[in-house]
Amino acid sequence: MNRVTKMTERYFDGKVPEVNERDEGFIKKMELMWENYHKLIEKFDIKKAAEEVLARIDDANKYIEDKKPWVLAKEDEKALGDVLYHLLEALRHVGYALYPFMPETAEKILSAFGKKPLNEEFSLNEKWGTLKSGDKINECDQLFPRLDTTPQ
Quick one: average pLDDT of 65-70? Predict the structure, then answer.
């Protein structure tokens, strides 16, 4: 979250970039997350539902490493915009999905988008592409600061 909002601030003045090319494979993972998430919640398998969300966070981290937005910033601004849009949208989804498990963390994520966890009907938050080009994104501090593991 911290990395993506900082890159959005740096490269797009803190505004949602325009998306030119959709990454259908990445989007499909988010759609499947919601499908699996609801099935697991209905079965009261909270642990696996949370793991489903965490797997999508891992996908987003891998997407950053694969797409290398810091390289795209020098070579291809349109592709950079596409990558950051997909990451922002994925984080918005993760924020809503985490709310039942980690409400304070979810609120921090969603506040970067100017969203509230329980606005309209929850299912409306599951649609891909609700972030609009030009919407302001607020920087988000680290959600989980590193623990100091040095011996005392």
Answer: 95
